[in-house]
Structure formats: C-alpha cells, structure tokens
Write a structure and sequence with these properties.
By secondary structure, the chain is α/β, with parallel strands linked by helices. It contains 15 helices and twelve strands. Helices cover 40% and strands 13% of the residues. Helix 6 crosses helix 9, helix 9 packs across helix 14 and helix 12 packs across helix 13.
Amino acid sequence: MERLFERHDEYMENVPMDFIRNFMQTVNWDSRLICIKGSKGVGKSTLLLQKIKTEFPQGSRHVLYCSADTGYFTTHSLVETADMFVKTGGTHLFIDEIHKYEGWSQELKEIYDLHKGLHVVVSGSSLLEINNGKADLSRRMIEYEMPGLSFREYLIFETGEKFDTVRLSDLLGNASGFCSEIRSKCRPLEHFGQYLKSGYYPFYFEDKASYGFRIENIVNYIIDTELTVQRNVETGNVRKVKALLQVISGMLPFEIDIAKISRNIGIQRLTTLKYLKYLEEAKLIRRLFAGLNATSDLQKPDKILMDNPNLLSALSPDTPLKGTVRETFFCNQLSGAGHSMEYGGLKTGDFRIDGKYVIEVGGQDKGFSQIKNEENGYVAADDIDSAVFRKIPLWAFGFLY
C-alpha cells in the first residue's frame, strides 16, 4: 500500500493548478461511484488530480490516486487494494485508466457493495460500458463524458483573460451584446484559426511542436488497442478501420456512399456501418441523422464529420474544405455542451438543435434563404466578429461550455 501512496505523492507534486476547467463543477463529487469517460488526451487524469489537490491537504492518507495500468495491479486486485485502503482509514479512491484492468466492472460492483463509506472515482476510455451484462453498474455508477477544450477554454489559456460560459438560448437571444463583451477582452478571430488546427486537446500547451504527431498517436492507440479490446475488432481489420477513418477525413460531407466506401476498403456494408458506430463511440467521428427518433445502430448516417476540427486537420490528406471545418467545429462545440443535433438536409438549415433551433453554418456572406421560413432560424457565420440580426459569429458557439 505504501508503494501506491509514494506514487500518489509523486503525482501530486506536479499537478498544474493555474487553470481548472468548468467541467469540474458539472460532476457531483458526493456520489459514491463516479465514472469520467473521455477520449485519450482530453485531460481526465489532470481533472482527478486537481480535485484531490483542492479538497485534501498535502500528504493526506484519506485519499489515494492510482492508475490501473501500472505494474502494481498485475499482482494486486482492485478489491484487495480497496480493502486495505479502507482498513487504513481511506475514504476517497481515484482510479485512472480503469478500462485497462480486466474485469474492472465486477470488482467495482463488489467494492461498492462492500464499502458503504468509500467514495470511488474512476476514469476511462470513451468506449467504456458500465452496463455490460456481467456487472451492470448503471444503477450504482454516475457517468460523465469529458470533452476537449472549448474555444472559450482555449482563449483562457492563450490570452490569460477570464471568459464565462453562455447558454445557447442566451446567445441566440442577445448575440450582439455577448459578442461585444468578448471583443472588449480580446479579438476572437485572431485566435480562432489556430484553435481549429490545434486547440482542442490540452496537451497543445505542453508541446506545440509535436501536437499533430501526438494526435496521430492517439488515433492509432484508440484503433490498435481500444477498439480491438473493447469492441472486439479483429486485429486483421485494424488497417481497414484506419483506411475508413482516412476516407472520412478527406470525404465531402454530402458524399456518403456506404457501398462505395465498403468496396474501396474491402469490408462488407454492415461491417462498415458497425465500424462507423465504433469510431463515433471512440470520439473520432460524428454521425448525423435527419431524424433522431428513427435512428438505429446500423442505419446509414445522412452526414459524417470528424469529431473535432483538430482531428480533421491532422488526418485529412489534403487541406480540409472550409465548410467542413466550420461544420465540424460547430457540431463539436454544441455536442460538448450537451445539445442534440439533427442533420437538416439540403432543403432547410444545416442543423436542428434540440429539436427547436435551426442553424445554417457558412461564411460571412451566408444568407437566410434556406431558413427564411424557420421561426427559430439562425446563421452561424465565419469570418465575422459582430452579430447582425440573426447572423451570429461562428466562434461565439465556442463559449457554450
């Protein structure tokens, strides 16, 4: 046990505390069993360590942070570790990389049932399933999905200024006032282009020069390791999954021909649809449908985008089309703020948000012709810094979380 505490102390010595993300306040830390999911690189480990740093005095042995992928857990079980921790007075156990521990769900269930006074927080892959049948944790565990940095958070890092979040309804209702407030502190368009290329993952601020290389490593890790282990993708098909992702990164959003894609990469149509679902669960792509109510797992999506614009920039074989980058950013920021999105099709606005708002995404000259009959229709326009009527700067949607 002392070995774990020594490692815990080492982790705590290097916790960055200059910026704590708003996501910290969205978690109900009083719950007995919490799971924080998210793509590799979005900052889950830092969040756990910051929570410990803010709540417990240095050297406290009532709290323990450990990672499930260390050598310690090759000879010790989670249950054994929790038992010893509680016996020595432990009350809060933080376990990182839980998805790398085989049989984690069954052991967490046992820990939860045995130790009523112990609070457990785990973090893991976006592909983590808490209701896998063997040990259904859905009634015990509260689950959160952690996104990467919003444009707002990126600006805080980049400028040192403080920017508050804005609710979508408030932004749409008073876009002009909101944009004026932001412009009084910085010039958003000065930083927006860089964010689209390299601002989503927090490690950008650790080593800017190798940012694109690290994104490629994350993608390879997710496909090579997480998809094969957690979604049983055959290792012989790993290269085909990577080929599928490469096709998507260079694909025009309105050209979705599943049969053609399947032929090109050498897999069956149903397998392609299944892999698309897995890639979305892994936070690498986003599938959009014209109607959410009639959506099934193996339904052909009406539109496919990369999950975030940084992935698009890193993986696209050519310079991404501006329109694709804009739509990728818009969907990513709305999703990160918890909003649902439907594809609007070619006859109405690009996206229907929460079944209520219709928003067309485009450049500064984008007009209202496609949403002229929509009561709640708006244009999210790139390359503008002020809101006019119902035309709102695209960057403003990056302040929703």
